[in-house]
Amino acid sequence: MTTNTALINPQIALQATQGAKPRLAAQTVAQAKQAAQNFEGQFLSQMVEHMFTGIKSDGMFGGGQGEEMFRSMMYDEFGKILARNGGVGIAAAVERDLLKAQEVH
User: Fold this and answer.
1) Measuring CA to CA, which residue among 102, 96, 91 is closest to residue 34?
2) What is the pLDDT of residues 51-63, one digit of tens each?
3) How far is CA 86 from CA 43, 57, 81, in A?
4) Cβ-contact 16, 104 below 8 angstroms
5) pTM (predicted TM-score)
6) Weakest mean pLDDT among 10-19, 66-75, 96-105
7) Domain residue spans of the chain
8) What is the arithmetic mean of pLDDT over 15-38?
9) Minimal CA–CA distance to 38: which of 94, 97, 99, 105?
10) Contact, 18 vs 104, CB < 8 A?
């Protein structure tokens, strides 16, 4: 037995009969925005990692096991910073699709 959400919430039922889609909660919109930004950050960190492939560190002030161990963290932070400051537009498209998938039809 399936439960129809329109039967549980009279406001949703009224909006559905009027052809309107119910508005999503502000918390849902904020969560979608954060998830989209995290996705773009991961994508950009992968791009940054490939950009640094083949670049040798300075022997006097860099290199060694310490740098190799923390380099992936640096790529992740670069990706997060790039996404937080506008990114390349992936987050906006992902956020739009996440919100579209959550609309009540």
Assistant:
1) 91
2) 988 887 777 777 7
3) 13, 29, 9
4) yes
5) 0.67
6) 10-19
7) 24-102
8) 76
9) 94
10) no
CA distance 39 to 105: 26
Q: How many residues does the chain have?
A: 105
- Tokens 């039922």 belong to 13
**Can you tell me the distance from the alpha carbon of 26 to that of 63, in angstroms, rounded to the nearest whole number?**
46
- Angstrom distance (rounded) from CA 62 to CA 67: 7
Q: In the chain, count of helices (H) and strands (E)?
A: 5, 0
- Closest to 71 measured CA to CA, from 50, 102, 43, 94: 50
Contacts of 11 (CB under 8 A, 6+ apart): 22
Residue that has been written with the tokens 């990692």 in this structure: 49
Query: How many other C-beta atoms can be found within 10 angstroms of the C-beta atom of residue 84?
Result: 12
Whole-angstrom Cα Rg for the chain: 22
